[in-house]
Specification:
This protein has 7 helices and 9 strands, in the order E-E-E-H-E-H-E-H-H-H-E-H-E-H-E-E. The strands form 2 sheets. A 6-stranded mixed sheet has the order 5-6-7-3-8-9, sandwiched between helices. A 3-stranded antiparallel sheet has the order 2-1-4, with helices on one face. It has 222 residues and is of the alpha/beta class. The structure holds adenosine-5'-diphosphate (2 copies).
Length: 222
């Protein structure tokens, strides 16, 4: 059973730049996959196709039994609820506490206060930040901010977690902490896809890797 399937996918942006060329890939449920490659090679574009931020110019993208390119409005939102996303720059709301940042997505989805209060502690515990619940982002280190963004990504218990260069702004220690949390999430059954150009993290991690170079995907060991 695969959670992600790409068949002959190409993406050309309107300015003519070819971000992906004839990419085919299948990711099984429960896998942890690294996507590596130089800057500008098409890694972010690959993730954007998965969460429906961009549409393929050619080919087919299937995610958790849906075709994101065919979805609009509410039906795209429903798919996105099943996908946790983590970005290099955290994207936290600076005037909101950790608790507020993490619960905001649940409020927006209409969860009750009781349900939110039930889900928040395990999400913060998973990233080791229970004691920072009432802090504001600027009171946290970069590594801590990224861990808040991971808590926010998983508080809705999605089956799929996408992380786009999650360690891009972090030192090696904090980078490894973030990867360890992602591994732990994978061990409880979440499918995890991480883009990175950090070869040392990949070597330390012992997970499958695919490489994208100039828009073309090649399997390194997947
Ligand atoms: P528009 O022309 O309507 O802004 P685009 O698809 O060109 O739509 O751009 C969408 C977003 O992607 C914009 O926020 C833009 O700044 C950003 N963008 C445009 N070109 C690039 C690029 N080469 N690399 C990364 N992001 C880009
Ligand atoms: P990576 O994540 O590996 O750095 P990207 O997927 O961001 O690569 O970009 C792949 C290629 O597509 C690059 O040449 C980039 O400039 C181009 N690109 C990315 N986003 C846009 C956009 N919105 N509009 C036009 N070109 C883009």
């Amino acid at each position: 059973d695969s959670i992600i399937q790409l068949k002959g996918v190409s993406k050309t942006y309107r300015n003519g730049s070819q971000a992906l060329i004839d990419v085919s890939l299948e990711v099984k449920r429960g896998d942890f996959l690294f996507v590596t490659g130089p800057s500008g090679s098409g890694k972010s574009t690959f993730l954007k196709l998965l969460y429906g931020e961009e549409c393929a110019s050619e080919g087919e993208v299937r995610v958790d039994n849906d075709f994101p390119a065919t979805l609009r409005g509410d039906r795209l939102s429903l798919l996105r609820r099943r996908i946790g996303i983590v970005f290099q720059d955290y994207k936290l709301i600076s005037r909101r506490t950790v608790t507020e940042n993490v619960s905001f997505v649940l409020w927006a989805q209409g969860y009750t206060r009781k349900e939110i209060n039930r889900r928040l502690p395990p999400a913060l515990k998973m990233v080791g930040l229970q004691h920072k619940a009432e802090c504001f982002p600027e009171e946290l280190s970069g590594g801590e901010q990224q861990r808040v963004s991971i808590a926010r990504a998983i508080v809705g218990t999605p089956p799929l977690l996408l992380a786009d260069e999650p360690t891009g702004n972090l030192d090696p220690d904090n980078s490894w902490q973030v990867i360890k949390i992602l591994k732990k999430l994978n061990q409880i059954g979440i499918t995890v896809i991480v883009t990175t150009h950090d070869e040392s993290l990949i070597r330390l991690s012992n997970h499958p890797v695919v490489q994208i170079k100039n828009g073309r995907l090649s399997s390194v060991n997947y």
